[in-house]
Specification:
Blueprint (H helix, E strand, L loop, with lengths): L12 H8 L4 E2 L11 H8 L1 H10 L2 H15 L12 E4 L2 H12 L5 E6 L4 H8 L3 E6 H6 L4 H6 L2 E5 L11 H14 L2 E5 L13 H8 L3 E6 L12 E5 L7 H8 L5 H36 L7 E2 L8 E5 L5 H9 L3 E2 L1 E2 L14 E5 L4 H22 L1
Parallel strand pairs: 1-11, 3-4, 3-5, 5-6, 6-7
Antiparallel strand pairs: 2-8, 7-8, 9-10, 10-13, 12-13
Helix pairs in contact: 2-12, 3-12, 4-12, 5-6, 5-11, 9-10, 12-14, 13-14
The protein binds (4S)-5-carbamimidamido-4-hydroxy-2-oxopentanoic acid (EGV).
Length: 383
């Protein structure tokens, strides 16, 4: 087989995702692209009346109701309401950018989970921060070294992590918060994937407030529901964080759309009323579907056995991830090669691919079949 492989010029994971946007087999990005449920479809059909409501009502009221519904759905009952403590943004990456710009006014360096989605290190580097990797195992299994905490102004943890799905337990979060408090370091959490995993839905704000460290949390509605990029990223902070977050937020935006906030409120109410449990079942079924289609392929493995998040890592054995990527993309299937998640040492991800599970079952089955054929072909070449 003499295929001419396309030249790939993607500089980051998102550019790999952009390549997939027009494909009918897009298993690349972690955004939700499955069908709306019946209740979600009904909410969408009521958007015109939400528009009328948004025109009439005070924005601060709508903002508070949306946050209350969303944080409540996720068990985050102690999230703060005081003025400026919960800021809404167009996306969680924008919240991230605001946090990064705030941090760099007082710190040179930040400790960051490794691996994690590459736009986090890229945004942090973009404002001039030096990044110190914290291995996932190290962050979850033991105290951080004092030397590290003396060197950085912030520890940044994604939980559940993207792409591994690893969730920080309540006990580890408490201990990490205590360590950050001792050293005056900001503890920053990105919880964009928490909706998928009940283990990540204990009340984080209660823990952070009890310990009293300086903290920031980024929450995201964007991964859960197929709402065509209509979403909110929330930037939440402790009273004592002592960073110019509100000022920088106001430099960039006045506020988010009250129409989107009302939509989020309605989706979150449905989520609390059984929609989230439904979603968990859908993702679990989709994961099982992909695993079943690939079950008898030799020399592969599913890396994150217990993951609940809407992405799945596949180890491609002795193959190179980019070879498999090239083979399947010439058949119009797009997945993510994992090197760039390993932002400090990309070679550690070169034998893994990430598959998105927030898709319709038919898309996942066709995708898995293309992948299966490519893996068998590549296995033959190597074997
Ligand atoms: C995922 C992409 C950026 C991000 C995709 C993602 N957003 N680059 N601002 O939403 O896992 O596919 O997180």
């Amino acid at each position: 087989m003499n295929r001419i492989l396309p030249t790939v010029s993607a500089e980051n994971l998102t550019q790999f995702e952009t390549l997939a946007l027009d494909s009918s087999m897009n298993l690349a990005d972690g955004h939700a692209r499955q069908q709306l449920t019946a209740v979600q479809g009904k909410i969408v059909s009521e958007l015109p009346s939400m528009w009328a409501e948004a025109v009439m009502r005070p924005v601060s009221e709508i903002e508070r109701e949306a946050a209350d519904a969303f944080f409540g759905m996720l068990g985050q009952h102690s999230h703060p309401f005081a003025a400026g403590r919960t800021l809404s943004c167009y996306s969680s990456s924008l919240a991230m950018e605001i946090l990064a710009r705030s941090l760099v006014t007082t710190s040179d360096a930040i400790a960051l989970l490794h691996p994690t989605f590459d736009n986090i290190p890229d945004i942090l580097r973009g404002v001039g921060l030096e990044l110190v990797p914290v291995e996932e195992e190290a962050a979850h299994d033991a105290d951080l070294p004092d030397e590290l905490l003396e060197r950085v102004g912030c520890v940044f943890i994604t939980t559940p992590n993207n792409p591994t799905g690893r969730v920080m337990t309540e006990a580890r979060l408490r201990r990490l918060a205590e360590q950050c408090a001792e050293h005056g370091v900001v503890l920053a959490l990105d919880t964009s994937f928490r909706g998928f995993d009940p283990a990540a839905q204990f009340d984080h704000y209660a823990v952070l407030e009890e310990v009293g460290c300086r903290w920031v949390v980024i929450e995201d509605t964007g991964k859960l529901w197929p709402t065509l990029e209509l979403k909110i990223g929330w930037l939440v902070r402790s009273a004592n964080v002592d960073l110019p977050i509100e000022k920088i937020h106001s430099d960039i935006l006045l506020g988010t759309s009250p129409l989107i906030l009302l939509m989020v409120k309605r989706f979150a109410e449905d989520g609390a009323d059984g929609g989230l449990v439904d979603l968990h079942r859908t993702i679990a079924e989709n994961r099982a579907l992909v695993r079943a289609e690939l079950a008898d392929v030799p020399d592969i493995g599913f890396v994150d056995a217990d993951a609940k998040v809407s992405v799945e890592r596949l180890h491609v054995g002795s193959r190179m991830g980019m070879d498999v990527w090239s083979a399947v993309s010439s058949d119009n299937l797009y997945v993510l090669p994992c090197q760039k998640f390993h932002w400090a040492r990309p070679q550690e991800g070169e034998r893994m691919l990430r598959l998105a599970l927030s898709r319709n079952p038919s898309t996942l089955v066709s995708g898995a079949r293309v992948l299966r054929a490519a893996l068998l072909g590549t296995a033959r070449q190597h074997g």
